[in-house]
Amino acid sequence: MHESIMHLNHLSLTNFRNYARLELSLPGRLTVIQGANGQGKTNLLEAIHLLATGRSPRATAERELISWLALDGPLPYARLTGDIGAGRTAEKLELVLELAANGGANGPTVRKQVRINGAPVATVLPADRLDRPLPSWLQCRPLAEDELFLLSVTNPASFDSRYFGPVSASAVIGVARPIWSETRP
């Protein structure tokens, strides 16, 4: 497997921790972040990590990532957007965290959605329909030539690669097609 470098050209934060709004252009060279204690330097680095991996290295619950000021709004949310790459390979990666109207046994839950170039790609559910916590894949890396990232775009509750990661192409033995589906209210 080869290593690849991704360059973050621009970072946009909305309602993320102490940032009500931030627009930050990053040059293609070393960037030094400096400031007094409590000004958001660590939150800025956490946002970049979260955007790259889908996980916070600090928060014990994702609801901590949504700014306290946003909690009074009609739909509490945080949005992180990054412009990645250059030229024809440039992508806009967006991560949206929305506080669910009803929480589980451990308090409010957060609905997480990933968008690439504005199109929803995946929603990672914190728990299944019985309120059992779900795992999620914690890596950000290019897929190997023999790997597949399986993802259902029609069923947000599908237990797929967003939870367990890529699979070997040789492990795929066919295509499942529904012959009958039950609709529930």
Explained architecture:
By secondary structure, this protein is mainly beta. It contains 2 helices and 8 strands; from the N terminus they run ββαβββββαβ.
Q: Per CATH, what is the topology of the domain at 8-127?
A: Rossmann fold
Give the integer mean of the pLDDT values. Answer: 83
Can you give the helix content as a percent range?
under 10%
Q: Enumerate the strands of the largest sheet in spatial order, edge to edge or round the barrel.
A: 2-1-3-4-5-6
CATH superfamily of the domain at 8-127: P-loop containing nucleotide triphosphate hydrolases
User: Which parts are unreliable, with pLDDT below 50 for 5 consecutive residues or more?
Assistant: none
The second-level CATH architecture of the domain at 8-127 is: 3-Layer(aba) Sandwich
Helix-strand topology string: EEHEEEEEHE
Global shape: globular
Give me the count of strands: 8
Tell me the β content. 25-35%
The count of helical stretches stands at 2
Using the CA coordinates, give the radius of gyration: 18 Å
Structural class, please?
mainly beta
Biggest β-sheet: count, sense, barrel?
6 strands, antiparallel
Question: Which properties best describe this structure?
Answer:
mainly beta; 2 helices; single chain; two-stranded antiparallel ribbon; 185 residues; six-stranded antiparallel β-sheet; Rossmann fold
Describe the SSE topology.
Blueprint: E1 8-16, E2 19-25, H1 41-53, E3 77-84, E4 91-99, E5 110-116, E6 119-124, E7 147-148, H2 161-164, E8 167-168
Antiparallel strand pairs: 1-2, 1-3, 3-4, 4-5, 5-6, 7-8
